[in-house]
Write a structure and sequence with these properties.
alpha+beta, 5 helices, 7 strands, binds zinc ion
Length: about 170
């Protein structure tokens, strides 16, 4: 599904659909179980009336089956991503924005050089990959209650630690 990124945003077009998680080949690299749940996605282009800036809003949600890093059992996780990417016309404009960011004047908005042949699904897939947890774990592993040896509830999960760092 290929679009001209600038024209797409300028016209405020929207593309949406649904496909099996397993059809996102890069997403499924390193994931073991068959990924047959549906992932619904939506990409919308828009232009700021005032500044004329062009944006892509990317959303996707669905479930993937991961391997729990504690019990090594399958772990079905709901994945929900939402991101907005700013479009720039060329690499020079992107470099200028990066330079602003280095000096602390820029924001943490993500920019992309507008591609005349932008693969919408690849964009969605990028966001899904970024949404995957680094070390997925059940909150409570199946069977853990019956086997206290394997419970390590006292240990904070890496996600909780990350949440703390973000604050
Ligand atoms: Zn587990």
């Amino acid at each position: 599904m290929v679009v001209d990124a600038l024209a797409f945003s300028y016209a405020g077009r929207v593309l949406e659909g649904s496909r099996k998680a397993g059809e996102f080949a890069r997403l499924c690299q390193g994931l073991s179980a068959p990924q047959d749940a549906d992932i619904s996605w939506r990409v919308a282009g828009r232009q700021d009336a005032g500044t004329g800036r062009l944006w892509l809003d990317i959303q996707a949600q669905g479930t993937v089956t991961l391997t729990c890093q504690r019990c090594l059992g399958p772990f079905v996780m709901s994945l929900q991503v939402s991101n907005t990417i700013g479009l720039v016309k060329d690499q020079a404009q992107l470099d200028a924005l990066d330079a602003l960011e280095v000096t602390g004047e820029g924001s943490d908005i993500e920019y992309l050089v507008a591609d005349r042949q932008l693969d919408i699904l690849a964009l969605v897939e990028d966001e899904l990959i970024l949404g995957l947890p680094y070390a997925p774990r059940h909150d409570v592993c199946p069977g853990a209650a019956a086997d206290p040896e394997h419970q390590d509830v006292a240990k904070p999960s890496p996600f909780a630690v990350l949440e703390q760092l973000r604050k």
